[in-house]
Amino acid sequence: MRKLQLLLVALVLLTLTGGLVRAQDPEPIKAEPGVELNMVLLPKTLGNAVFDEAHEGAIEAHEELENPGELIFNAPTPDNAIPGQIEIIEASITQEVDAIMISANDYEQLLPSTTKAMEEDITVVTWDSPVSPEGEDLFIAQVDFTEVGSVMANMALSILGEDGGQFAILSATPDASNQNAWIEAMQTLLEEDEQYANLELVDIVYGNDDPDDSYNEALGLVDSYPDLELIMAPTTVGIAAAAKAMQDEELCGEVAVSGLGLPSEMQEFVENGCSQEFALWSFKDLGYLTYYVSYLLASGAMEAEEGVVFEAGRMGTYTIEADPNREDGLRVLMGPFSVYNADNLEEWAAGGDEEGEPEVEATEEAN
Amino acid sequence: MHRIRRWVPLQRLREFSLVIILIIVVLIFGNQIDNYYTPRTFNRISSTVALITLVAVGQTMVVLTRNVDLSVGSIVGFTAYYVGRYVSKNEDMAPLMLAVLAMGIGAGMGLINGLLVAYGRIPAIVVTLGTMAIYRGVLVEYSDSKSVATRQLPDWIKELPQESILKFGEYELRALPAIALVAVIVFFFLLLYTSLGRRLYAIGSSPEAANLAGIRAPRMVTLAFTMCGAMAGLGGMLYLARFGTITVDAARGMELQVVAAVVVGGVNILGGSGTVIGAMLGAILIGTIEQSLIRMNINEFWKDALLGLCIIIAVTVDRILINQLTPWWSRTELQRMPEEPHAAV
Prior knowledge:
By secondary structure, chain A is of the alpha/beta class. Chain A has helices at residues 2-24, 49-64, 81-94, 111-119, 145-160, 177-192, 211-224, 236-248, 263-271, 283-298, 342-350; strands spanning 39-42, 71-73, 99-102, 123-127, 138-141, 165-171, 199-206, 228-233, 256-259, 277-280, 309-311, 317-319, 321-322, 330-333, 338-341. Chain B is 74% helix and 3% strand.
């Protein structure tokens, strides 16, 4: 009898722990290939190299999942960014697509259209730059937004040194939700953390993600602030334009350029000393992951709920989690950050221009 | 004084008043902005102005014939992209050949505009509004929405904007402004002293009279559009040199700057009068205002509105100056003559 009781307890314990283990580490949801889904990839604007890379990643996933449907790549021109996105979303609703993947130009203004799309049973996934949580299923965050602030602050510190100095920010559009969040995170850090006390942020200007505007704004900064030592551009268009401007005015060495940049665009500026260090995540991976998530949601294999674990092809397993930066928001956090400088860029270049995955350390210590 | 008046036509007077306005504008900005009078400000503004000037010179010819070309921004963008792609694959291409290629592509696009306007008898504003969108569309399609990156370009083209032709201390005349200046001088003489130039003026000031005089207007209009396209093509190549990174959006909206420069420069939008010198001064004025506004601490959303306001003020002041000066200037010696004999009697 006693033995039986022990056995029973053991059995109960076993099933309990087994259950617990399963609850903690459930089988990740996998995608069933071959479901026909028409999907729209809608980045912020046309003519920005990072979005082309995201497109490549989405195409890769599209082929891998053998989706017989269409992957439509469409974006507005920069001068028509917000109305253009609204038009494309409305047109997609009319075409009855299954999923829209948006890098939003505005946090609020797209809401009426994206909400309407969701009411029509269209999966709305944001990536790169989110909308307010009620207008999306979830957000694929490239990196943690506060981490972008700390990575930028750390690059500024390593370029300007302990003694610090003046620096300015050259951003994209004044209403870009992601850039504004990163800049805010950086500003908070500069105020709160003692080690950044000597870094003086003198100005924030906007180049509208347009090469000419960014080029001229960068030169305007140099003219306005003779003691400026660094231009920090949290946009790939801005950083390349600023580096070119410094090169043309023979200011490399006097004014450093840093921020978020594409290795393919920044390589030569690192070689000639116009930029020492910049950072970015892989936009190709971001496009790939976004496509996987949208496919899973649109095919009904997965619900957008906190705690759901899924597998995204070659990138492995991810969990849907609450977005700490946005109330009621859900996100999938991709990461990691790669910091590029003269040392690892050579490796990157040797690894083949477009295909090679850069072998660079993730900046875990940045936190 | 009489002698000066006789030798300086009214058109020069208008240009003179633009120079005065430009000086006023520079003084105002100099007063508002710290470190304004530096060589770098000068070099930067001159490079920006060079691009607008080059395209404005071509635009002037079209406007003289009572037409307008709104597709120049798209032509600049397309040639910048095409030439960039081309030179990245043919690195040892001679600079001059590349310029010829750029101008050739631009001329081809201009020729299409010209044929449609002159022989299709469609208003220029309609034709070029259409081709503006079409040429941009061709670019989007051709580019596959990929961009040209600086690293794909040969060194000479990247270094072109820094090349200085003449130096006065730290003030330099760089390659881009120098090319624009040469274009202005060439077209100045071409328009004022050749029969080709005079015929363009004739068509613009009185189409009927030009027709009676045996000028074949359609051929001349087509030629004007073609030359305008060629200058936009050259502008495209220099745009590539200046910015390096070329996206499908390159030079979008440039047509407005160019048309504004031409109009501010005193080229009559109804045809028949104006010079490339005026267009250049217009470009300098707009470029200076635009680049200087960047230096002011103004809300981003207000900058365009302020640019528009500055242009309107500049043109209004110009008109008032001209209106005040013209009667005085135009009183020729002949008109004064009667007074003197009377006095003698």
